Amino acid sequence: MDIKRTPKVLIVDDMPQNVELMEAFLATEPYELIRACDGKEALQQVKYENPDIVLLDVMMPVMDGFEVCRILKNDINTQFIPVLMLTALSELNDRIKGIDAGADDFLTKPINSMELKTRVKSLLRVKCLHDRLVMEKNALAIQNKVRSILTAILPTLLQSLHPEQKKIIINQMTGMVEKTVLEMYQLDEKELTLSEAGKICADIMNQLGGSFVVREIEEGCRVIGTSCPWGTEDARRNPILCTLTRKIFSSVISKLPGKWGVDTVSTIGNRDECCDFRIKRL
Length: 282
Known about the structure:
The chain is of the alpha/beta class and 282 residues long. The chain is 51% helix and 19% strand. Helix 3 packs parallel to helix 4. The protein is elongated and about 75 Å long.
């Protein structure tokens, strides 16, 4: 559910007076109310309106609420739409049947206005959180795809540039990454410990596709990578990419109290077996 738009509530009941009653109960809430008079129409409305919640009567002719709920929950496109089943049935077996069909919650008729509003708000809140997670997951997938493309073509682009042009590009990329790191880890708002700084350095390289770990040593810590985020062969053709890694680490440790520096002990880009960066106090 897009948190900026009005939530859509689909009310499904074969009795018009029941629909009108629930519409009256929800009229004071910021919802867009949609009607369906039977199970078949309900499925059509779900397809065309994409509601954020379905208030579903159980006892309907042709297709009862259990069947409608089962169809919705078995469809990958609608399985996460909350279904609040409205029923005059209070027997345990009927509730078990509803749970088996995938219902998210139940209300027993006659419907209480406050209880209806509370249940709807609660289920919409869960739906909103789910939709946010899906959006974040999709955004992350896109970012990872773009990152993979960049790390694949960047070494080839840098290979043909003059050394001074390479330095300019590296500095620009470092600035962009530093801004992202500051926002992601909220580095402007806190002072880091050495172990936190080392972990952030490793995390950044791992998110770029590398394999880095942190090892604490007496005078500081080591950030060691056995897999290069820039691609092993590409980094070896363009070892200047290792400079980008070092600059990223330097931007992170600038948030440590006191004066710290980064030493490059070895890099895959220079045909070493691993990348080994030492963070130490100056």
